[in-house]
Every structure is written in C-alpha cells, then in structure tokens.
Amino acid sequence: MTYLLGRDIAHVSAGARLRNLLERPGILGIPGTHNGIASQQAKAAGFEACYLSGAAMTASMGLPDLGIITVDDVCFFIRQVARASGLPVLVDGDTGYGEALNVMNMVRSFEDAGAAGVHLEDQILPKKCGHLNDKKLATPQDMANKIAAAAHARRHLYIIARTDAAASEGMDGAVARAKLYMEAGADAIFPEAMNTEAMFREFASRMPGVPLLANMTEFGRTPFFTKQQFEEFGYKMVIWPVTSLRVTAKASEKLYAAIARDGGAHNCVDQMLTRADLYETIGYAAFEALDASIVKTVVPEPIV
C-alpha cells in the first residue's frame, strides 16, 4: 500500500506508466507475482512491472485454469498487488469473461482495481492453458470484436491480444489473426505456445513495428530462453507467469511434510524469512511510523 506511505503515483495512470516503460529501448521483463508480498519482492529485486497470471491466481485458490474464476476474483488480486508494490500490473484477462459487454465491464473493473494492462485470448470456454492440447478458438472476427470492445471501454488500459492459433492454424493463421486484432485496437500481440526459436523469430519478422509479448513458462511447449534472447528474437516484453507460485507451492509442500514428519517446523527455520526480514519486506516500521504521526489525541476546546 505505497500510497499510504506518501509515495502515491496515482496522478499518472497505471496504463500510462506501463506505456512509458515500453517506450524505452530494450525488452521489459515482467515476472508473475501471485500475491502482494511476491510483488514487493519482485520490486525489491529491481523489476519495474509485474504480472498476474490466470493460472497462478486460480491455483492459489485451489482451482484449475479453466475459466472458472470471475472478474471480482481477479480484482481482489489486482488490488493487493497494485497497492503492495506500486508497480504497473499486467493482468491475464482470459477470454474476457463473456462477449463484448462483458469485456467492457472487465476493462473498467480492472482499471478501477489498479491494473495497467490486460491480455485477452482468442479461445472459447472452457479455455485452457495455452500450452495444453485441444484448445478451441473463437472466430477471428469474434475475437476482433472483443478487442474493439475493450479499446472502446478503456480509459488508459494497455490492451494485448493473445492468439493461440499457431498450434491449430499454423503461422499464417496466427499472423493473420494478429494483424486483424491490431486493426481492432490492440496495442500489442501475445503469440502463445511458440515452441522453437525459429517460430519466435518468424512471427516477429512478420509483425514489424508491433510490440510483442513472449511467455517463458516452465513445463510447457516453449524451450527455456532468456530475456536477452527474446529481445534478439524481436520481442518487447517477456513474462514468467507461474514461476513464483510454483516455487512458493513447492516450498509449502516441503514445509507441511516436515511438520507432519517432525512434529513441528523446527527443522525448516533456515528456509524461512526471519521476522525482521518479513517486516522489512512489507514495510512494517513505515506503517507504524505513519500511524504514530497521524493518530494523535485531540483535546477539544472548551465551550465558552
């Protein structure tokens, strides 16, 4: 909640701040931050924007990434990450939660919650992770209508159109869709589930001048590439969407196993943030100081 500590930057919209970052030379690395403290840790590591993945949000709720969660569910995550970090937040908008009017509602709701950008995908429900099989796609025109609706509704939100067409329609289909989505009002394109360097390079070469987002997810179809490699391929943004959730969940799994085995967490202390480190991360002392500076007893003037 950086705005409480005198570091409010609300006079510049979140979307404008993201655009400013993307106007600089080079590629923008945007790590997934599945909750508020993760976004604070990403900021402390030097990142200037963060990402909310649908897969990470749903998994943190104990649900699969199948389009189950609602706009209000996502806004809960947006509010905590935007407030905790003060960073521009790019949000996974799945398929837009319906058709044109639903997409417009999503855009305004995300903006009100503090989002800087959103990406919409051209799947139909039940949607799937882009790296899984048997994805069903909307028609290109139906998706373009959603992008147009999002562009019409937004005040500042940066809109990225994601296409999952490469797997089923080939590179020609993916590029044709991407061009149509840009004409409909998208600011950038996210070609999902590219599985070779050649595919990344070809897509970029066929979309000159268009900002492109690369997805570096683990255990998917994309080989491991670095941020620098994606920049060489022609990409302006790269996300690591579920990485923080996966690492955190693995650590929790080990913790609970240790408690069950050992009758306590005493053998896991070296894997924990200390109380001091935790308080430093969340700004505990700054909040205390703020409280002490404002909450004072006021003695009423006597009535004469």
Task: Detail the poorly predicted runs.
Answer: none
Per the principal axes of the C-alpha atoms, what is the gross shape?
A: globular
Q: How many domains comprise the coordinates? A: 2
CA radius of gyration is 21 Å
Number of helices: 12
The overall pLDDT, averaged over residues, is 92
Structural class category: alpha/beta
Which fold name fills CATH's third level, the topology of the largest domain?
A: TIM Barrel
SSE string, helices as H and strands as E: HEHEHHEHEHEHEHEHEHHH
Helix % is 40-55%
* Strands, count: 8
CATH superfamily of the largest domain: Phosphoenolpyruvate-binding domains
What's the architecture of the largest domain in CATH terms? Alpha-Beta Barrel
Question: Percent of residues in beta strands?
Answer: 5-15%
CATH structural class of the largest domain: Alpha Beta
Largest sheet: 5 strands, parallel
